[in-house]
Write a structure and sequence with these properties.
single chain; alpha+beta; 373 residues; 6-stranded mixed β-sheet; globular
């Protein structure tokens, strides 16, 4: 079978790539080794309760915001229903020593007011931080929606770590811990994450935070429906053995583990870069690029506990919690006791057949293993 493009990996990026290509008239095959698409987005069921594995909530899903607009482009508007978190405290930061709590509100103006009220002597640091975060967020949005080929829009922020930036603004360890608490979401310590990446994550949450009714399962179902309508051939349970290439044409096909060859004129891989390196024929990549991929360190991991509550947990209804014994927990790789590590805590109501929320909660408790980077 011949295709214009073969996309390897049916995660969020792979499904998006396949759907966008198909919407633009290309013949596309999407190959996924797992038995179903969206393996990390989907949910699982234990004792009749559905738990989300990799999708809990999202920023930028408010009406007219960038992900909302992107979902509309993909054709998800009539397939997904979103619910906002608490506008005056969707994320709650809580520290025990010193005792401190902060509730993140929707909107940059409201966030600035609350930060200045909590740290009146740090007004300049707060203003500078939010101005830079909004600048990066806005530039990223423009690059996504207006000019995807634009270069240099991050203006060097990708070479500065979050910790270096915060250290240049203030010596207040509690404020710095608060501003980098969302590192728990992507599992990289502030000294290693680029300021640009952090801004692209938190910049969207500072605007709004929503969940999708049905969680990741609903999102995967929307992708599957639209991909099927667009003519994407989805091949699940099919692993890739190697990429085929000839010089100077480049990639000419993808050979599956069962021996079938999918001929194509282009391939998009969303698998781990080192896995990709094992699939490509020798000489396809420049040696310096192959060495760069081969030298990548493994990303951070986390310990996740899923649990059931038979009664509503009111403080987790529409809010997530970031908990720490002390501010330093967000900065130092911790390999000691669990009490030394930050914790991310979230929950979701179980929804009945008539779409009415019930009193049972699925709870996700995450302890990042920063020390495994």
């Amino acid at each position: 079978m011949r295709y214009d493009y073969v996309v390897i990996g049916a995660g969020a990026s792979g499904m998006t790539a396949a759907l966008v290509l198909a919407k633009n008239g290309y013949r596309v095959a999407l190959v996924e080794k797992y038995p179903s698409a969206g393996p990390l987005l989907n949910s699982f069921v234990r004792r009749g309760i559905r738990f989300d594995a990799g999708f809990h909530y999202s920023g930028d899903l408010g009406k007219g915001q960038v992900i909302d607009r992107f979902f509309r482009y993909l054709g998800f508007s009539d397939l997904l229903r979103t619910v906002p978190y608490q506008s005056n405290g969707y994320d709650v930061f809580r520290c025990r020593n010193p005792e401190f709590e902060f509730r993140f509100p929707f909107g940059y103006t409201a966030l600035r007011e609350k930060l200045v009220a909590a740290f009146p002597d740090e007004r300049q640091a707060v203003d500078t931080y939010l101005q830079v975060i909004e600048k990066i967020r806005s530039a990223t949005e423009n690059a996504i929606l207006v000019s995807a080929t634009s270069r240099g829009y991050l203006q060097g922020y990708e070479s500065v770590s979050l910790k270096t930036f915060l250290d240049s603004l203030t010596g207040n360890s509690l404020l710095k811990a608060l501003l980098c608490s969302h590192c728990v979401l992507y599992g990289v310590t502030p000294d290693q994450v680029p300021l640009s990446l952090h801004a692209q994550v938190v910049g969207s949450y500072y605007l709004s935070a929503h969940r999708i009714v049905g969680g990741g399962e609903s999102l995967v179902a929307a992708f599957n429906r639209r991909m099927e309508e667009a003519g994407v051939e989805i091949l699940c349970g099919r692993g890739v053995q190697k990429l085929l290439a000839s010089h100077p044409r480049g990639v000419t096909g993808v050979q599956l583990e069962d021996g079938e060859v999918l001929e194509c004129r282009g391939c998009i891989s969303t698998v781990h870069p080192q896995t990709l390196l094992q699939l490509v024929p020798s000489g396809l990549f420049r040696s310096v690029y192959s060495k760069r991929l081969d030298g990548l360190k493994e990303s951070a991991s986390g310990l996740i506990l899923y649990a059931e509550s038979v009664a509503p947990i009111e403080f987790l209804d529409g809010a997530n919690f970031y908990l720490a014994e002390h501010p330093e927990a967000f900065f130092k790789p911790m390999s000691g006791s669990l009490q030394q590590r930050p914790i991310f805590l979230s929950a979701a109501r179980r929804v009945s057949a008539d779409s009415q929320p019930q009193g049972f909660f699925s709870i996700c408790l995450t302890l990042p293993e920063f020390s495994r980077q």
